[in-house]
Predict the structure.
Amino acid sequence: MILLIYTKDIVYTYIIAKLEVLFMKKYIINSFTFTIISFLFAEIILLPNILYEAIPYQSYKLINNKEILPFEKVWYDVWKNIDNLTIREQIAITTYIVNYINPDFTPAYIVRGDAYFTNKDYIEALQDYTTAIEQQPNNAEIYYKRGLTYNYLKDFYPTAINDFKQATDLNNNIANFWAEYSYALKFSHYGADEMLAKAIAINPQYKNFNYNELEQQRTTIVYSSALEKALFYSYIGNYFLADKYFEIVNRLNYLPKQVNINYNYIINMMKSAILSGHFENAFYTGKHFLSTNSNNLNNDKLAEVYMWEAFACAGIYKEDLFVQYKNLALNLSPKNPQVYWILGNIYWKIYDDTSNAIDNYQKALNLMPKENLDYFILSMELAQIYKNLGDITKAYAIAYNMIISQKELPNIENINPLDTPIYLTYAKAYDILGNTQLAKIYYQIAFNLNPNIDIPEKYYPNKVEKLQYLPSIIIDINDTTAIELKTNIFNYGT
């Protein structure tokens, strides 16, 4: 039996917020008074105590003869069925185990690493295999799996080669180990024939091992998936992972004639590199693109590339080039809000020049349609600067006007990873307005979707909170253990 049970506090807060947005647009009333009235209304009328139990929202629970049992007490029953779950279900379960049950449970890292690998989340797979190796340094299979991942990424020497050496030193009787060792050496070093001969001696089928065919198949798979993930992570603001996947794309770019390196691609790659602190990579990327593709862009798009190049130059202290690219962008597209937004970021993040940052942010906002999502996001960046400067009045006014202009709040029941920037923006707004309950909800949603964002320390989730937005799992234990997950988020790549 599947039960949908939500934490009262979150339901209360969400209902209050919806009512608050509705009423504050129509009536000017004291926010604190309204909150008290709304809370009493929700408590007495909408949510009687007998209908809801105070258990974590979307948490893992087990139902046994109508008795609710904490997942952590019977998690091993679920673990025994882990192979029967889908990839995303395996990721959800193992994440819960290593973050909440037992961080030293090595098999969970291996299973999750395998799941990530199958889902083409290669960076995440490498991280889990590395953790597993740290915990079990004499496990040959883990070295093999990490080496195999490096082989897919064409990161052969010395990473893949070292892993296969470790695997074969620990266990020299498995043909796969020697075959993949041979593959790594074939494209990076020497000695491939010797290693392949050892694989054939164990399993004669490796006589037909075709390096080039296998390399082409893997490269095609990894290239397309890495490009997709790079763009996805860039969009949701996870610039660390985006940059990592762009690095893979660049390493595997063996199809230049078949791949259209367009404006969207180059902008996101430069942005991810810059916001990950890799200014020099962004600089050379932009320089190469401008030398080969600048004639294919209209003035607005070309100006944005120029300004991102100016950003990269500022980051590596090429002041003359910064001024040159900045002026090119402004002269080419003087009414492009994106150009002023990027320039504002340069002044704020590189030069700590809040005056010029505010000036350029305001220019960008004046050129943007107010119904545009970018207007919403940039407004809160401006409010954040005023807050940092101690001008709480201006910060509050921007946040308040932004909130009351919205028709409805983002949905917290059917969370979409693509809405990560929206959740983060709402979090910042409610933080400035002093609504810590809603700020916490939206910060933690955004954090769970993108753990690489910076959030105020007071909103940083603990282990339980960090997991509350994973798919809920309700397990009905009868004669056999049945498992069902409500996978309404983290569905990217499935």
